[in-house]
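**Polypeptide and fold**
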Amino acid sequence: MGLESMGVSVVICCHNSASRLPATLRHLAAQHVPNGIPWEVVVVDNASTDNTREVALAEWPAGAPARLRVVSEPRPGLRLARERGQAESCWPIISFIDDDNWVSPDWVRLVSEIMTERPRVGACGGWNEAVCEVPPPAWFEANDHCYAVGPQAEPGKEGGGRVRRLWGAGLNIRRAAWEGLVNHGFRPLLMDREGKRLTAGGDSELCHALQLAGWELWYDPRLRLKHFIPAGRLRWSYLRGLVRGFGATLTDPYWFEVDDRLRALPEWRRSWWMLIAREIRALPHWLPGWWRGLGGKGEGDPAVLVAERTIGRWSALLRAMGRFDERCRTVRQAAWRQSGPRPDAG
């Protein structure tokens, strides 16, 4: 007897998304989903000041193969919007796509198939392709991963398999895994993107927590979506801000536990002071890039991006002074690390 297919809730977190939603919804409405897989679309209107709600309802075809609901989250922030989508959705799998993600016609079917057949997988993702509004600059291909574009494969995993990280765009999460974390006391330590601030990290934090709880992260290249990138995000200044935001994401308390080599280090070598000392020793390596990037110069220079990431990391470390080591202990001793799948699962 075959396994019963798991239902999928597609959640789209939106902040002033009226201009981007129509194309995203058209691709969702074109899904080819077998009758045995129930699914829905939940649009989270996250503190929008435009007509995102009205556009979402108007653009969803009357004869669409699934129902669409619009729910409100008045507090701005991607993490809060995702939490609202999780709370309002109803099926065992939550598929987060962004308002500029155009999923392939078999997206829902494949997500259900992967998660149903692999009960130890807490989250899965696939291959994201860039669709640029204007011809991309010469430096884009070398930095497309900053835009959550390309395969999420690690060496030797090009055909699919377990990975150590997944992007937030097109992230599919098992509800039982997420709720297991929360019910055992998991509370995010990082703040995700809010408004125009190019900070990130909420998706990485959640994926690390799932791993530490015993769940697998899975990459499947059959899962395809197109990521529409407008002209404004193809500017060098935007990429510099994006990379600085990546640097400001302190996921070290999780990496210290996920990575076997780091976990084996004595506690003093994983302290805030040791991280600061390491960054001081690295000053000669990134200061030239900072100098070359002054005044918005140095377009395409990888050293400029190294400097941006380091500046972001410095700012985050300084803000975390006095709290970083406590965060490390919180992750190391967390009760939610016991919330994973049963030993006999899968």
In short: The chain has two domains: 8-234, 253-337. Residues 253-337 form one domain.
